[in-house]
Amino acid sequence: MIGDVANGNEFSTNDPAFRIRGLASGGRMANYFERGTEIDTFNTERVEFSRGPNAVLFGLGQAGGAFNVGTKKADVRRNRYSGSVRVGDYDALRSTLDLNRPIIRDKLALRLNLVKESKESWRPNEFKDQERLAASLSWKLTKKTDLNVE
To answer: I need a surface site. Which of 30, 61, 112, 142 has the fewest CB within 10 A?
Structure first.
């Protein structure tokens, strides 16, 4: 056994911690909450990295820094639709769909982000076969107050 993993492949673990300038970081966060699972870009709107002392101000930051991903929120003002298809080696296929629809204009909206991905590989633990859905509901309660549910 090499390291903490039986097969010796440290990259196949789901360890959220990583090092920045030799110091342990606060790990992965999504919307300033700890996220131990893989973070995918299909529902990512913003990526932030806080360094040094600033990192301890938000979420789980440490002296090494904090890595945060902001997820896509529903927009009450306008419709938005987008999609993508990506193909690659080893029968890789990834398709994404991003749908935003106001239900009540300037008051209530729903956003769906979907991904379907498959990939074969000759390396152990590198194949992918996933289907994901991320839903976001936004409700504008007052002029300055929003309620976002994911």
So the answer is: 142
